[in-house]
TrEMBL record:
Source domain of life: Bacteria
Location of the NAD-dependent epimerase/dehydratase domain: 5-210
Annotated protein name in UniProt: Complex I NDUFA9 subunit family protein
InterPro entries for the chain: ComplexI_NDUFA9_subunit (IPR051207), Epimerase_deHydtase (IPR001509), NAD(P)-bd_dom_sf (IPR036291)
Amino acid sequence: MARRIVVTGGTGFVGRVVCERLFERDAGTAIVVPTRQLPRGNVIRMLPTVELVRCNVHEPQQLAAVFDGADTLIHLVAILHGTAQAFEQVHVALPRKLAAACRAAGVQRVVHVSALGVATDAPSAYLRSKAAGEAVWRDSGLDVTIVRPSVIFGAEDRFTNLFVRLQRLFPVLPLAGADALFQPVWVSDVARAIVASVDRPAPAGGIVEIAGPEVLSLKQIVQHVGRLAGCERPVLPLPEAIGRVQAALMALLPGTPLMSADNLLSMRVPNVASGALPGLAELGLRPATIDILGAHFAR
């Protein structure tokens, strides 16, 4: 029987790669991607088994048609910036609606993408809301695997490309949270882990940690991508108090903030794998290092 997999967030940075890996795994899999607006030039539109469905996923009435005939949900929708209310809506209320839609449609298998460092007593609203979202899925009665990645990098990411652009513009880079620790993981490895999790029963505890092979500080990541792009600049670490002022000023700029005060609070928690939970090795995957971006920046 052919699979029919719903991918919420399928038009995003990670979601597009997930759709590509699903197609590579089995070209007969029907991939349903709900989206408020049909994107222009999106690569997933070129995959013959991807069905883009206009849908507001926050509206339960619209979800019924999306899940009709589906057997699996991959849930990727998340936000990094916003108010406590926005985090609650996206990270907690939306999973409740999706879990209800899954139960109503008979969808039992769910792979939910969360984040490393989540906890109910975490310092940031982002991490606390992600922990609350995980609890929704654990209590849903569905067969759920929770995937917790570290910061995700790739040719189209906003994270490394932003720091490269800033180093090309400025002779010195002031940096809040310079000592924060990450275990950066390649987007293709995250996508392969998600796809591998679809076909495997949820592990004991239901959680898989997805992290790269190196633990690096934010300063080291910035310097490393600068070297790869041929534009490395000195990094000036900022104390957290000054970093909060910097974040507040950034929040006044139009568009998505480069960094928020809540992001700084999140960086108090090391964004690294605990080593006590299953990871990429248990899925049979060997992670790439951030050096893989060298070819991208050399273009």
